[in-house]
Design goal:
Length: 339
C-alpha cells in the first residue's frame, strides 16, 4: 500500500505520518508538502531515514509536479491535509486560502481520476458547519447539519468538500471526508491558541484572549484524530462524511487559565484583546456515526493530553524557538501589537 500524505510537514499531517509508519509498518508513505511558513522539515527528521518514507517538496496546485509524482509512485490512496489552516490569516488575506484549499484539492483529485486511486480522503473541519449558540448546549454538529461558513478559511474548506462530493457523484471517484473538531498536541504551529499560550507563558509574555474568552471549542488530542482517519480510509464507506470529536468542549479562557496554572505562572499575564472578526461562538461535534459505524472512540482525556502537550513544548524548545525567531515575529507584531 502506497499513500500520498499531503501537508505532512504540518501539525496533523506529521502526526499522521508518525502514526501510520508505526501502525502499518509495511506501507510506503510519501509526504508531499510545499513547506509554507507552517511546514517544517525538522518536524519530519525522525522519519527521513525510514526506507518506507519519502519526502517530496511540491505545491498541491502544481499540476505537473502532482501528475509526475503519481506517474512515479502509483499511489493507492491520497490523504489530503495540505491547506492554509489559520482563520486569522484568512481574514487578513483570503486569496491563498482559495488557491491551496480549493484549487489544490481539485488538482489532486484530477490526478486521482487520471491515474486511478483506491481512496481519496479529504481532511476537512467542523468549521464548515459554522457555529452553534452558547446558550444551547443541547445542539451539536451532525453530518446532516447544513454547511454555513463564517470565515474565508472555513468557506474555502467547505468549497473543497463540495468539490470532493461532486467528483464522487460525477466521476465516481472513491472519496471520503472527515470533519474534525479542534486538535491539540505536539508540533502544533505557535500561531494557534494552545501553543501560543504555552509559549507566551513560558516567555512571560502577555496572553492575548480574544473578546471575553467565552467562545467554546471542542478539543481532541491529535493522535485520536489520526486513528480515526486510519479507520476511515480502511473501513469507511466510500462517498461518506464522518464527524470526529470527543465531546470535550471548553471555553478559551478556561484553557488559558489551565495552561497558566500548569506552568506555575500568574493570571496577570492574561490580556483581553479585540475580538476576531466574525468569531464563531461554539463548535461541538456529535461523533455518533463514527462511533457506531467504525467503533472509533477518543482515547486521550483532555486532562492527560494537555499535560503531555505542555511537557512536549517544554522538552522541544529548539523546535518552536526556531519558528518564533523567524518570520513569525513579523506575523505576531502585525496581529497583536496594539490590538
Ligand atoms: P498546518 O497549517 O499545521 O499544516 C499545513 C501543511 O500544509 C504545512 O506543512 C504546509 O506546508 C502544507 N501546505 C500548505 N499549502 C500547501 C500547498 N499549496 N501545497 C502543499 N503543501 C501545502 O495545518 P494543520 O493544523 O495540520 O491542519 C491540517 C489539515 O487538517 C487542514 O486541512 C485543516 O483544515 C484540517 N483541520 C485542522 C484542525 C486543527 O485543529 N488544526 C481541525 C480540523 C481540521
Ligand atoms: O491568540 C489567540 N487568542 C484567542 O483567544 C488565538 C490564536 C486564538 N484565540 C481564540 C480564537 C478561537 O476561539 O481561541 C480559539 C481557537 O483559535 P485557533 O487556535 O485559531 O483555532 P480555530 O479558529 O478554532 O480553528 C482551528 O480549529 C479548526 C484550526 O486552526 C483550524 O485549522 C481547524 O479547522
Amino acid at each position: 500500500m502506497t499513500i500520498i500524505v499531503t501537508g505532512g510537514a504540518g501539525f496533523i499531517g506529521s502526526n499522521f505520518i508518525f502514526y501510520m509508519l508505526k501502525a502499518n509498518p509495511d506501507y510506503r508513505i510519501i509526504c508531499l508538502d510545499k513547506l509554507t511558513y507552517a511546514g517544517n522539515l525538522s518536524t519530519l527528521k525522525n522519519v527521513m531515514d525510514n526506507p518506507h518514507f519519502r519526502f517530496v517538496k511540491a505545491d498541491v496546485c502544481d499540476r505537473e509536479a502532482v501528475y509526475a509524482l503519481f506517474e512515479e509512485e502509483h499511489p493507492d490512496m491520497v490523504v489530503n491535509f495540505a491547506a492554509e489552516s489559520h482563520v486569522d490569516r484568512s481574514i487578513e488575506d483570503p486569496g491563498i486560502f482559495l488557491q491551496t484549499n480549493i484549487i489544490g484539492t481539485a488538482t489532486l483529485m484530477d490526478a486521482c481520476r487520471k491515474y486511478g486511486i483506491q481512496r481519496f480522503h479529504q481532511v476537512s473541519t467542523d468549521e464548515v458547519y459554522g457555529d452553534l449558540p452558547l446558550d444551547r448546549p443541547d445542539l451539536f454538529f451532525t453530518e446532516e447539519t447544513p454547511i454555513h461558513t463564517s470565515s474565508p478559511y472555513s468557506s474555502s474548506k467547505a468549497a473543497a468538500d463540495l468539490l470532493v462530493q461532486a467528483y464522487h457523484r460525477t466521476y465516481g471517484l472513491p472519496v471520503t471526508i472527515s470533519r474534525c473538531s479542534n486538535n491539540y498536541g505536539p508540533y502544533h504551529f505557535p500561531e494557534k491558541l494552545i501553543p501560543l499560550m504555552i509559549i507566551n507563558a513560558l516567555n512571560d509574555k502577555s496572553l492575548p484572549v480574544y473578546g471575553a474568552g467565552i467562545n467554546v471549542r471542542d478539543w481532541l488530542y491529535v493522535e485520536d484524530h489520526c486513528k480515526a482517519i486510519d479507520l476511515i480510509i480502511h473501513k469507511g464507506r466510500v462517498g461518506e462524511i464522518y464527524n470526529i470529536g470527543g465531546h470535550n468542549e471548553m471555553r478559551n479562557i478556561d484553557i488559558v487559565k489551565l495552561i497558566v496554572h500548569e506552568l506555575g505562572k500568574s493570571e496577570d499575564l492574561i490580556t483581553y484583546v479585540t475580538d476576531r472578526k466574525g468569531h464563531d461562538l461554539r463548535y461541538a461535534i456529535d461523533p455518533t456515526k463514527i462511533n457506531n459505524d467504525l467503533g472509533w472512540l477518543p482515547e486521550t482525556k483532555f486532562a492527560d493530553g494537555i499535560k503531555k502537550t505542555i511537557s512536549w513544548y517544554l522538552s522541544n524548545r529548539d523546535w518552536w524557538e526556531e519558528i518564533i525567531s523567524g518570520e513569525y515575529k513579523n506575523y505576531y507584531e502585525k496581529m497583536y501589537t496594539g490590538r
